[in-house]
UniProtKB/TrEMBL annotation:
Taxonomic path: Eukaryota, Metazoa, Ecdysozoa, Arthropoda, Hexapoda
Protein name per its UniProtKB record: CUB domain-containing protein
Pfam families: DUF7805
InterPro entries for the chain: CUB_dom, DUF7805, LDL_receptor-like_sf, LDrepeatLR_classA_rpt, Non-NMDA_GluR_Accessory, Sperma_CUB_dom_sf
Entry-linked SMART domains: CUB, LDLa
Record-level GO cellular component terms: plasma membrane
Organism: Pieris macdunnoughi
Domain CUB: 163-319
TM region positions: 911-931
Keyword Disulfide bond: yes
Length: 963
């Protein structure tokens, strides 16, 4: 038995401090190689020791026909060769090797240390120019300063170890994780730890560590025992294959990536082999550990074509994500996320790698976190009236293969995403949509890192959908585009209660089989201030609860609805909300409004030129209007202010016990919601001492109203508007001496510069007094009045809005039938209210007339002729009350009700009477004409007879009559 030991050292290394040794094993034969793990070198072995590094005890043996290169880590190495058994056959040598070495300068070892090779470096050093050089387009920009390749940061060697290293703050360094002696042959019987930690993290961010290698040529780890290629497939593959998990147990040379700083943390990737790129392995926190393990025995002979590189090199990258976002698991042992609140957001897959057989839970619950109840999550057994509902839309979901995306998954719906309606903490049993005898739902009992569970958690969650690579039941892909329409109900999910749970189940690690999904979630707030009023979806009522003896109630804050389904993003184009405020007798309503949002539309709240109120100028498609209700539910609301932008310190006090606020938006887009349009306000019921007993309400078929103002001052009760209330089924016609004066149009300069001063319009009217007529429209009709008995004959005629069929579409939407349960009149308002805005002394008359429509004939819907309406004013084509007909006062505009042809008894006699009278008069006329003609004939005969006698002998008969 031969026992030979050879010790080979290189004494030249000591003379070069910045150099490494390159040893080339041109041929190597040392005994037999039998195994990588147990007694693999029975005849002899070779060991390599590095200076100032502990001995690891790994052994090399066997036969190699190709060159193998070893690069030292230190300045000196020692090769120990032991031959235990020599072959008995003379023609079979088991000990033969030829070795060459070379001292390599460190600056040439760019594969290991990085930097620019000397052959590519410039011959001269470029100095900075003393003055700037302007380079215009079209000129050659290749004269720019060459960029120098950064050198690698290989970490700090841990004292007492062979190859374990520590890396810190790789966001500012070019960190590389390398196998020992890279790119040469790595030692045997070795375990190296590479600890990567990010110390400096920006505020509000969370660090993730990424290790990867997109260049597959830098990865070559022994992965199979075979010394030769056994089939054509392996020969064609040339050893270029990356293996994972248990596939690396054959040789037990592999790299393991841990999600943490210790080997007790979850394993997110284990690989060996090489030739192809290594996928990204991402930690869930600022710490990551990489372990490199090799088997005790090895041989230089590879089963495929020899490669010049051995071992591995991994790149390190640091990524930062938002700290307050569900993009990383705060607990490494439980992938669980809590999304609570009242807003909305984007939900994506975890940005870090997850180990195989991991289940991630996303607990989404709508809850107002501003109050004390927002500190904990309460799971309720019943969802009878939830305040919030979860609106969830899946934009994309797909599972791919990091090495070959075209490869299908190993099993049907291996990695999938379940959507549960309700809170999920414990498995609900076999309620899966794919549930069968061999497959049931297994919900992991992950423990939340926060103690937020109160009471016994329910288990009645319902599975509503499952997404996997093979199926996507309901998606909303178009939402990925900019300025896209909102997701429809058929493209999304809406929970029945305030909770929704997502269950992401992964059968394989996401480093190899990444799972990508992106979804939109929103907690729809169904809460509305006040109490339900009428049939509208957002009409509310606020009533005073105070008593005369008790102190008054404090102001109550309210706002526009936050239900997204009432706006454009929820599918509605228009919205109209009415807020009614009812005070007790002896109280009035005081409103304060702030934060008026009009969606960026060019509209401003400006002072009216004819009243002390605000009006909306510009694009009035979204506004908050304040109405005074002096007569409660009778007549039109008296419009006071129109707000479409913020007004500093706005306050309104009603003149009666009832006031209303209308919030209206038309022509919303798919991007508009309560964040675009809305308001914030408060209401307070204030007690007053004086009370107006006169209702300022008149009625009747016709009448005249006197409006007057005095500079000596008037009681506030006399300054209230008047209501003219017609009879049921009738409309009003109003006549006022004067002319209509309109509000001036505002140009873009006024709107953009937020100019709210009213223009001076005194030159357009002789008086500063104005008469406002409220017809129920969006704005009153302002009239420049004329005093009575003026020479000018100029008047204004106003009809009820219900009389005129052509109505503004915006007014038709805003002034839709009120949702009051006590009001069933679906027609337009017929009452009119008149108000004198007195600035100077003056008196004016207002006359009104009740009108009714002509009834249609029995043959169809065509209006009858004037015969069906006996008392009709032709100029306005309307019927009036019979009591006004021929009463001595002209009510019709053209005086048709007092004409002689209408009021004479003779002209109003029946037709057959008129026919007989005409016949009688004709007979009398005939008799008179006949008698006249007879008398004329007798007179002419007498004259002829008198001519025949002499005048002296004429004799007259006494009986002769001369006509």
């Amino acid at each position: 038995m031969l026992n030979m030991k050879c010790l080979i050292k290189n004494p030249l290394v000591h003379t070069f401090q910045m150099h490494i040794l390159k040893i080339l094993f041109d041929s190597f034969t040392l005994g037999r190689f039998t195994s990588f793990t147990e007694d693999g070198c029975p005849d002899g072995y070779m060991q390599i020791q590095e200076a100032s590094r502990p001995q690891v005890g790994g052994s090399w043996c066997g036969t190699s026909w190709g060159p193998s290169i070893y690069y030292s880590e230190t300045k000196s190495i020692t090769l120990i060769i032991r031959l235990l058994h020599l072959s008995k056959e003379q023609n079979n040598y088991n000990f033969d090797f030829r070795m060459a070495y070379k001292v390599l300068r460190k600056e040439y070892a760019t594969v290991r240390y990085g930097g620019m090779p000397p052959s590519e470096r410039p011959f001269f050093k470029i100095r900075p120019m003393p003055y700037p050089v302007n380079i215009t387009r079209g000129e050659d920009t290749n004269i720019a300063r060459p960029t120098k390749a950064r050198e690698y940061y290989l970490g700090d060697l841990i004292s007492g170890t062979y190859c374990s290293r520590i890396f810190s703050d790789c966001d500012r360094k070019n960190c590389r994780l390398q196998s020992p002696n890279f790119p040469g042959v790595y030692p045997r019987n070795l375990t190296c730890y590479y600890a990567v930690r990010q110390h400096e993290v920006p505020q509000g961010k969370h660090a993730l560590i990424v290790v990867k290698q997109p260049n597959g040529q830098l990865i070559s780890i022994r992965s199979q025992k075979a010394l030769y290629a056994t089939n054509q497939q392996e020969r064609g593959n040339s050893g270029r294959e990356l293996k994972f998990w248990e596939q690396c147990d054959e040789v037990q040379d592999y790299v393991t990536v841990y999600d943490g700083y210790t080997t007790r943390d979850p394993v997110i990737l284990r690989f060996c082999g090489g030739g192809v790129s290594v996928p990204e392995a991402i930690s869930s926190g600022p710490e990551l550990l990489v372990e490199f393990t090799t088997s005790p025995f090895g041989t230089f002979l590879q089963p495929a074509t020899a490669q010049s590189l051995h071992g591995f090199q991994l790149e390190v990258e640091v990524r930062f994500v938002d700290q307050q976002s569900p993009t990383y698991a705060k607990n490494k042992r439980a992938c669980e996320f809590w999304i609570r609140g009242t807003g909305r957001g984007v939900l994506e897959h975890p940005q870090h790698s997850l180990p195989p057989n991991t289940t991630c839970l996303y607990h989404m619950q709508g809850i107002d976190t501003s109050g004390p109840s927002g500190k904990n999550i309460f799971y309720r057994r019943q969802f009878s009236a939830p305040r919030f509902r979860v609106w969830f839309s899946v934009l994309k979901f797909y599972v791919t293969n990091a090495l070959n995306p075209n490869l299908p998954e190993d099993e049907y719906c291996g990695s999938h995403l379940n959507i549960w309606d309700g809170p999920m903490r414990i498995s609900p049993g076999c309620s899966d949509i794919f549930c069968d005898k061999d497959r049931s739902v297994q919900m992991s009992r992950a423990t939340s890192p926060q103690s937020v569970i109160v009471g016994r958690p329910p288990t009645n969650a319902t599975l509503v959908a499952r997404f996997c690579r093979e199926r996507a039941p309901r998606t909303c892909e178009h939402a990925l585009l900019r300025r896209s329409r909102a997701c429809a109900r058929t493209e999304s999910f809406l929970s029945k209660g305030d909770s929704l749970t997502l269950e992401l189940k992964l059968t394989q690690g996401t480093a190899l089989k990444p799972v990508f999904f992106k979804a939109l979630y929103e907690f729809v707030d169904l809460h509305q201030d006040g109490e339900q009023w009428g049939h509208g979806p957002c009409s509310r009522r606020f009533s005073s609860r105070s008593f005369p003896e008790a102190p008054p109630d404090p102001p109550v804050t309210f706002s526009s609805p936050r239900d997204v389904f009432l706006y454009g993003r929820g599918g509605n184009r228009n919205i109209s909300c009415t807020y009614r405020f009812e005070a007790n007798p002896g109280e009035v309503v005081r409103l304060k409004i702030w934060s008026v949002r009009s969606g960026g539309r060019l509209c401003r709240s400006v002072h009216s030129a004819h009243s002390p109120w605000f009006r909306c100028g510009g694009e009035v498609t979204a506004a908050v209007r304040v109405f005074d209700r002096p007569w409660k539910d009778s007549g039109p609301g008296v419009l006071r202010d129109c707000l479409c932008s913020d007004v500093f310190d706005y306050e309104f006090t009603s003149t009666s016990t009832v006031a209303e606020l209308k919030f209206d938006v038309v022509n919303m887009t798919a991007m508009d919601d309560f964040r675009s349009f809305g308001f914030e306000a408060s209401v307070e019921f204030v007690r007053v001492e004086s009370h107006c007993e006169d209702t300022h309400r008149v009625h009747g078929p016709s009448g005249e109203l006197l409006l007057y103002s005095s500079i000596m001052g008037m009681d506030h009760c006399d300054q209230r508007p008047w209501l003219i209330d017609p009879s049921p089924g009738r409309y009003l016609y109003l006549r006022i001496e004067g002319s209509i004066i309109k509000e001036p149009d505002l140009d873009n300069f006024t709107l953009l510069n937020n100019i709210t001063v009213a223009p001076d319009l005194r030159h357009m009217c002789r008086t500063q007094n104005r008469i406002a007529v409220y017809t129920g429209g969006l704005s009153p009709v302002y009239i420049c009045p004329l005093p009575p008995h003026r020479q000018e004959e100029q008047s204004v005629e106003i009809f009820s809005d219900g009389w005129i069929k052509e109505v503004d579409p915006l007014a038709k939407h805003v002034l839709a039938p009120p949702p009051s349960p006590d009001h069933f009149d679906l027609d337009w308002p017929r009452s009119l209210s008149v108000e004198l805005m007195g600035v100077e002394s003056g008196s004016y008359f207002v006359t009104w007339l009740e009108l009714s429509r002509r009834q249609p004939t029995e043959h169809g819907g065509v209006f009858a002729l004037s015969g069906d309406c006996r008392y009709r004013c032709p100029s306005i084509d309307a019927c009036i009350s019979p009591a006004l007909w021929c009463d001595g006062i002209s009510q019709c505009p053209d005086g048709a009700d007092e004409r002689l042809t209408q009021c004479s008894s003779f002209m109003n006699a029946p037709f057959h009477y008129l026919t007989g009278l005409i016949a009688f008069i004709a007979c009398i006329a005939f008799i008179v004409v006949a008698a006249t003609r007879s008398c004329r004939r007798r007179r002419s005969a007498l004259q002829q007879r008198l001519k025949s006698f002499s005048s002296d002998t004429a004799i007259f008969d006494e009986k002769e009559v001369i006509c």
